[in-house]
Amino acid sequence: MLEADSASLSARADTILGIHRPQTAAHARFVRAEIWLRYAVPAFLATFLVCLAAGAALQLRGERSEILRETVTEIETFTRLVTAALSDVEATSSAIRSRLETLLPVTLMPAGRQILVTSASEEILGAHPAMTDPRGTLTDRIGEMQALSTLGERAGVMALTLANGEQAFAALRTLPNGRGQVAVIQPIAPVLDAWTTRMRNQAVLYASAALVIVGIGVAYALQTRRAYAVDRLCEQIKQRLDTALGRGRCGLWDWDIPRGRIYWSDSMYALLGYRREREFLSFGDVNALVHPDDGDLYALARQLAASQSTVDHEFRMRGANGAWIWLRTRAEIVPDQVDGGRHLVGIALDVTEQRQLAESNATADMRLRDAVEAISEAFVLWDTSNRLVLCNSKFRHLHALSPDDATPGKRYHEIMGRGVLPPVRRELREIEASSATARTFEAELTDGRWLQISERRTKDGGYVSVGTDITNLKRQQEQLVASERELIETVKDLKRSRRTLELQTQQLADLAERYLDQKAQAETANQAKSEFLATMSHELRTPLNAIMGFAELMETGVYGSLGSPRYTEYCRDIRSSGDYLLSVIDDILDMSRIESHRVRLALREVPLDGAIQNALKLVTEPARAKSLTIDVDTVAGLTLLVDARALHQILVNLLQNAVKFTPGGDGRIVVKARPSGDRIHIFIEDTGIGIPKAALRRLGSPFQQVETNLTRTHKGSGLGLAIARSMAQLHGGSLRIRSEEGLGTIILVRLPMPTAERRREIVTEGSDETVDSLREASGARPRGGAGSSGEMPLKALTQVPA
């Protein structure tokens, strides 16, 4: 046995701690039969119940069918007899009712059966038993869609659903000579009352028998389940004991002291790595495996013989591979009830790992003490009885303790009574979330240092305390607190500013919404005004042309003299007033087209000198009449990329305004033109009455004039300057006004020059591009709005480059 180098876990799979269980062939057959019967008996009982239920159902169904067949035969016979009895009765309700009551008393009528006698038109003449409401027809009683109504007596006895929803049998026979019909109606429910009662009784009987059989089956199933559970429990106990001994690294001992033999469990063999060769071992075989330094079994036997004590002993035994295995044996003397001998029964535990772990723990404890001594914090560990377990030199230095004072095992009060507590200036309690097992607080010492002391409960009931010097951390924390206060104040200011900004934003949003609404209303009103002016202007032109034509005819006397010279003067006034009114209407039409975006410009390269001369032709006579001097100062060869008609209208309107508002005598008007980049600046200067600064902002808007209606001394609609500004902006240019009251006015018009890029963008002559497209094609944006004005002095615009 000592030379074996392998082992099996068990020599007998059918043992529990060496106790045999019966494994005969008869026992095995009984176990197999028991398993089969466990499922067969419930199946037999269930089959019996199903067969019993099926037989009862078939029997009841046959009885029901037989009852219905007999009822059909009876109704057929009954209908024929009633028809024969009524064949010679007068077709009146009283005669029919009398014959039926005489022939068939109500007490002899089957339950629910009713006889109806109808006329040839299917009206009910009589009923037996009598109905509460005998009026109506047979169809109202049995329903319109029944086959019995269609087939009549050919249908025989039919099962149908009455008009009231009741299931019934009905038969129909015709009286002789077509005097009417006899219908017999038998509801099915009264016919089946007796069958229903029998079915209910049989159901109760079947249910009682089924309940008894099911109870027997359940009891059998519970008994077999309990027996199966007991078997399983025994199997589990066996497996658990074997597993517990095998996996728990322990083995069973049974030392028969008088006979000197020892029984080992299979797990004991597996523990040492040996293989079982016989059932019992001798005392000497086992003693040879014990380490010499750990005593021997002979000394143990003498000790047991001297006293009845138990055994708790650790020793080493040699394994199959030659290694020593530490075992801890716990056993007790048990008397044998059969032969009166004594047995030492117990278990042997493999404590090799525990011994190795103890050595490792001693090494780890030494390392832990070194690590605790090396940390920079003051560390102390107390056990559940407030006795010192471990502390380092920082803790002793903090409390002025000597190594002899801080000896492990001494109580807290004994140690701290010899120490000196550091002087504390103030203490901050519970700086962290406290619990029942931990707390942390800070203390400021008198020398300016800060300590953070953390105390934690250990799992065994003691506690550990760590003191950390956090002086630098506290200083940084104070700086952070100051910075945080400043940040909080800044955030508060930002929040106040944000609330103010949100309020202003809301106000601006409301203002913007109201502005958009008012703008839309203004644009709608402006559009309506433009359409109205255009419509009225077109309506005024026709009568105005007639007035002017007739006034000219009367003035020239084509058809003869008018008589008085005053009529000629009146006609001249009418014609001049018509010319003025026509020019006003033309201006209104032009302004209306501009505001409704219906102006189409035909861009051309137009020489500036020729355009100025054409415009001067229309103002030369009025200027001469007022003794005004008109000078032209332009650079030769200047060309504009404009609409010729629009340019002519701009120049004429501005020159007419200059002539109109310049007093006669020594007045002077100057027209200048200078190039500036890709633009040409056209200046129209006059020495007229000038424009007040308050009126500069509204000039250029439609119907706006310097003079009010109460102080007006010059005629005009106020559209000339607005049309000129709008036309200039349509070309991508602008119009600006500078004026001083009493000195004169300078009007600057900026218009585009033809460039290579602009020429390429003009595809065909007479292009019908929209105004927005023309602005993009010209490559410019208007500078200064309709009411743009500045504070540039008058001389600044007159000093242009030569």
UniProtKB/TrEMBL annotation:
Per UniProt, residues of the Histidine kinase domain are 535-755
- GO-annotated molecular function: kinase activity
Q: Which domain of life is it from?
A: Bacteria
Coiled coil, from the record: 473-528
Which residue windows are transmembrane per the record? 39-60, 203-222
Enzyme class, one word? transferase
Q: Keywords in alphabetical order, please.
A: Coiled coil, Kinase, Membrane, Phosphoprotein, Transferase, Transmembrane, Transmembrane helix
Name the chemical reaction catalysed here.
ATP + protein L-histidine = ADP + protein N-phospho-L-histidine
Which Pfam families does UniProt cross-reference here? HATPase_c, HisKA, PAS_3, PAS_7
Residue ranges occupied by any PAC domain in the UniProt entry: 311-363
Q: Where is this region: Disordered?
A: 763-802
Span of the signal peptide: none
EC assignment: the record states: 2.7.13.3
Q: NCBIfam families given for it?
A: sensory_box
Cross-referenced PANTHER family:
OSMOSENSING HISTIDINE PROTEIN KINASE SLN1, TWO-COMPONENT HISTIDINE PROTEIN KINASE
What name does the UniProt record give this protein? histidine kinase
Q: Name its species.
A: Methylobacterium marchantiae
Lineage, uppermost ranks: Bacteria, Pseudomonadati, Pseudomonadota, Alphaproteobacteria, Hyphomicrobiales
